[in-house]
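S2.1 Query sequence (Apolipoprotein N-acyltransferase)
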Amino acid sequence: MPTRPTLHPVLSLALAVASGLLIGAGQAPMGLWPLTILGVAGFTWLLIDRSPGRAFGLGYLTGAAMNTLTVSWISVLGAAVGVALIAFLALWWGLLGLFISQLLRLRWWPLLVPPAFVAMEYASGKVPFGGFSWSRLGYTAVDTPLSGWYAWIGLAGVSLLVAVLGTTLLYVALDRARWRRGAAVVLTLFVVGGLLNLVPRATPQESVTVAMVQPNVNRNEHGTSSYARSVTNNALSETIFAVATARTQATDIDFVLWPENATDVDPINDAETRSLVETAASLAQVPILVGAVTDGEQEDTRQTTSIWWDPVDGPGSTYHKRDLVPFGEWIPFRDFLLPRLPILKQIGRQSIPGDAPGVVTAPLLGHPNLQIGTIICFELAYDDTSYETVLAGAQLIVSQSNTNTYGGTFQVSQQLTINRVRAMELGREVLASTLNSVSSPIDTHGRVLDPTTEFTSATRFAEVPLRYNVNLSVHVGPAISVGAGVLTLVAFACAVVMGRRRAK
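Output structure tokens follow.
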């Protein structure tokens, strides 16, 4: 069992806050990934020889600091929302602190602590109401040689490697005679990851050309009666500009991509909105993948939807967003909470999740069976939803987002980073399409090729290869998450039993 000197309680609290800030500093837009590794080492060291209660408290404080740094952008919905979310997410770090404090009592703690981080990320991404695991360790590796591992072991696997680097640093710091073993681990992870980045991608034989339309909106109109119409009017206007530009440059477009909420009123049931979409498709003379709010099957409900809209046949294949944001798109226990918390009325109609993988059938001339993988906004953070696009046959990936609410905050760069990770994981180019934020094609190396500027209308043309590979990460990543959870629970139980035997 490792040891550490006795610390004054105030110093312990300060170090917990510092560890959280260091761990969060590797997330976008800071991107200071070495600090995350240092933070993991410091956090683990702080938990040595702690009682369960104190370990939970220190973990909670670390999580509160980390989440305050990384996801306080949620407070644009209200300060109370930000405080509540950060306070809840910190609970997972409290549990992590408790578990790690027990795992450190076992001989094999350097191998057992890293899976505990992955297990926490997995659990926090599931519970409650679908979870919200946004600031994962694996995102900090996007601009490091470790990024080569994404395609092979997935995001969960890269989170594991970041945690391994942190515990390795602590392992060496506790006994400098171990530096050779520590150096071997670090060099192996970075060198192999770097070499994996050099593995050539298959050269596709087919491609499609997409016009990515960023409509832009007047943010001051949000919540007003004019907003819903102006969003779609802007999408139509920018589509006209995109088509004119393409024809001037002799660029043949296969389809136009609109972002999430490009129509804030159901374009199928509302005649005025439908007319705008039909006009855009008719002028473009190619289909439009429309990001829309549609009416749900039940009264006073809605769905966030991607619709394939053909200029001749009209609306076709659809995908309904599955991973909805609680208290953002829907209200848990609505009948009970809504009368008691009137502020929740701002959420509007209850959103209903879809139940099918995010793939839209998109027939084109020359590509009659084209399958487009669609990931809508926060769904990016959910491994299963992202992986199922390629498992269901997606040949290219589009990531449709609104982001209007979070413009100018850390959320924008963090979401772009997650898009980059998914491109490397899935082995697909990702078209990150936003309403008025940063839109860009992203290649399979995670490179942002031609980003737009926030709060501007813009168009980007992208020739996107059609790919059919299913990377190993899609199968290995989920197994690592589940395996880490099982291993952590078993090791924790063993540590508790051994501790009780020693106490006797």
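Residues 473-503 form the longest helix (31 residues). The first strand starts at residue 207 and ends at 214.
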